[in-house]
Here is the input.
Amino acid sequence: MPVICVGGMIGIGKTSVAELLAEELGSDVFYESVDDNPILPLFYTATPEEIQAKRYPFLLQLYFLQTRFASIKQAYKQADNVLDRSIYEDWYFAKVNHDLGRISSLEMRVYEGLLEEMMREIEELPYRKAPDLMVYLTADFDTVLHRIGLRGRDFEQDEALVEYYRVLWSGYDDWVHRHYSASDVLVIDMNRTDVVGSPEDAARVVREVRAALAAGPAGR
Here is the structure.
């Protein structure tokens, strides 16, 4: 059975797709640590002055790195799971916050050193070393903003966050296609996909994922 990473922008529908695939494949979902995350609301609501003083972006990246590292090790050990975002995407978020000046160069070096050690450990795992497929969800920026609004998390709704979302969105495709190399990638266009409201869309996504798995290394 496969291990699948579902990736993409904030609010784009990763959890819904992950749950759909897990149900269809008879596997578990390893969720991104959001609702129980003590730093995430502070990250989104802090003023620039508070960010500089409290270092929330750096702390948030360390928190996510630790939780995603634990999740992927367990997912690989169980052998057939779906990850709602994974450790492979974590560096991209750290890079964006570094480019925006919210993570210092020293903090970025510390972060990258820790990530490198974690990736070395993953590559030495005895049971699995990489996912079978990344399902990458993409959409235009208006769709992303609309879906963030529909999700309704208060700390994500501030108008001041729109530019941050835009910077994340603008480089995401480039990161996936030029920097991600752990597995094959299946791109799903979320501008025309609603796996919750449309059974036809849900069935199509499942078919595309099954076909990608069959065509990839795990299916040969």
Observations:
- The mean pLDDT is 90.
- The two ends are 13 Å apart (CA to CA).
